[in-house]
Amino acid sequence: MIRVNLLPQKKKPERGKGSATFTPSSSGQKWLLVPLLLVVVEVVGLLLYHFDRQSTIETQKKKNNELQGKISEIQALVTQHEAVKKDLAELNAREDAITQLQAGRTGPTAVLLELSQLLTPQKSPTVDPDVLKELQKKNPLQVFNVNWDSHRLWLTKYTEDQRTVKIEGFAKDSSDVSELSNRLKTSTYFYDFRLLPGKLDEGVEGLVAFGVELKVRY
Fold first, then answer.
1. Residues of the domain holding 154
2. What pTM value is reported for the model?
3. Does the residue 174 lie in any domain?
4. Tens-of-pLDDT digits for all 218 residues of the chain?
5. CATH of the domain at 128
6. Which residue of 12, 68, 72, 113 has the fewest C-beta atoms within 10 A of its own C-beta?
């Protein structure tokens, strides 16, 4: 059995047009703006940090380039220093060779002049005055005699090999040989003196044959 209500129904009063309305959709949109703003702030902060770090990196790169330039300059100076040292070593070696060659040419001449002076009357060997004074104090018998008559002795042979000199000759007696020995020992041109065994020369009556061996400086 179906029932039908034919009575008139009361209408619900409509809200006024001027009244405020609240919808769930408008409130959700406001809350969405907050995370968006946070994201924007974070992005801006990251960009600022990135720019700051980039500036720091560029500054450090500039400093590194300056340091590398200084290192390169120092390395170049070191390389030049080694080259200069090598050139100086070669130059010193050349100078030493030239000095030795010059000494080889002039040295023997100077030694012969010294030997000639030793055998000249009223002449004396080349000697440091301080050395001579010390010698006079320690052993006066080894000091040469300025008044010696060098005509009492003469040389017959003079040879030099690798700066070792051998001298042979004759003398009136052994005192003349001793005087020559003292002069050679005192001279700054000679050292490492050694008297060779002497003998009477059979061809010359009354003369003493002698021989000495010593080193020369030049």
1. 119-216
2. 0.51
3. yes
4. 555 555 555 555 555 444 445 455 555 566 667 777 777 778 777 877 777 777 788 888 888 888 888 888 887 777 777 777 777 887 777 777 656 555 545 678 888 889 999 999 888 899 888 888 888 888 888 888 989 999 999 899 999 998 999 999 999 998 999 999 999 999 999 999 998 876 655 557 778 899 999 999 87
5. 3.30.1360.100
6. 12
